[in-house]
Amino acid sequence: MLLSPDGLVNGASNLGGAMHGVHAVHDAHESTIESSEVIPVHPLGVKPLGNQYFATGPTARQALGSIGCMPDEMILQLLEYLDAQSLRNVGSTCKFLRAFCHLEELWKALFLELQTASPGPPSWKGSWRSTVLQLPAEAIAQVECNNVFSDVLHRPFECSHIRLSTYISDIPRENQITRLESLTHDEFERKWSDKPFILANYIEAWPVYKTWSIDGLGKRYPDVNFRAEAVDWPFSAYRTYMDKNDDESPLYLFDKEFAEKTGIDVGQHEGAAYWPPECFGEDLFELLAEERPAHRWLIVGPESSGSTFHKDPNATSAWNAVIQGSKYWLMFPPSVPQPPGVFVSEDSSEVTSPLSIAEYLLSFHAEARKTAGCLEGICRAGEVLFVPSGWWHLVVNIEPGVALTQNFVTKSQKHLTQVLSFLKDKPDQVTGFSRDVTKPYELFVERLQEKQPSLLNETLQEMERKSAGRKRRWEEAVGSNAEADNASGGFSFGFGADDDDDIP
Q1: Domain range for residue 395?
Q2: What's the predicted TM-score (pTM) here?
Q3: Gap between the Cα atoms of 48 and 4, Å rounded
Q4: DSSP SS3 for 254
């Protein structure tokens, strides 16, 4: 059983409490409850809502006065409108609001607003609240809030302290991502271009593999600004944040301009810092030269950082090479419309999922593991994981680490068809191109016509064939429905007219 530090039932999984993020905790959470995991004491003494039913004496909520009728979620939404000083003042009124006004996500949002107005490296104080207010540890008042019971407050704390080992161990055999010791380009094209795999023993030859550890990057590029989600920080500042934060969703360094910033060369030539694995063959997006979309990233992050479920942009495939640390991957094929706990809009332009990776693991991991098509694996230092086009994937750092990733387009006609269809049919979802490129589909077709005319013609014919097939199936479905309706005397679409109407 998952217990709070005082031995009471943790959370609302048994007692029907509030939601965290956009999803209620459902039956999949039982897998966590059944574990023997015990989380640490909340720094303010806040307890899950369910513990309120075992408590004696008054609760802190009783001191809220007229706003006591509001649910916790509404109180949190109101606090999101306050500036730093107002939030600090409100937190001084009572223990219940003190606990709410210490929620790190509120202060993180305020910090990002300040960064927008006045960008610059932070003087990190160990938490977002302390950093915004520039409070040293000794200046923080210690006020116990152990009569505050709230899932809205406790759930993020629980998520930030989950044990990843609970979820990444005992992977079912049928779920395990295949590991390969070696792979030729011919084997990749024949057998592996549409299946994930982990390639071992490859990147040890890269010069960066020997030097780009977290410590190595810190020594080489301490003052270089890298993109960490919504902020640009010198690596030294990000390293300080990495080493001391308690975030549910730690900031993830994900920089697309790292090669230019560090002055390294990439490619199959002497002096290159690294190069794409040869087994993947030619990258057709290279035909776009300087006009190609963003395609390669340096990734650095602490334990528990990572990316929630998504598909790679523009229907590209990708490889992800781990230089330091290890990553857990949870993947689903394109045949799965949406992974458990993930909700996709009708046009696939919006993906809604729990606010954090930890929340997903707590609430949906057990269900995901049992879903047909699910694949899981751990990619360790020195290994490369391949993500085929259209595959859903969630990835989380098991330990602090460094990785390099690149998106690409293989010469497989199936893959090229997917990319061209995406660029043509979903122009509003195309990403990564500069503003100067207003017609990515036309540009790519033009370059393919110059360098790969036969492949292009075959691919366009395949796209036309598929389009005609979809149209034919639609017409057959509409026709059969109309015939059935007319035969049964049921409703059918038509235009009503009087006998004297002139209808051609």
Answers
A1: 165-426
A2: 0.85
A3: 8
A4: strand
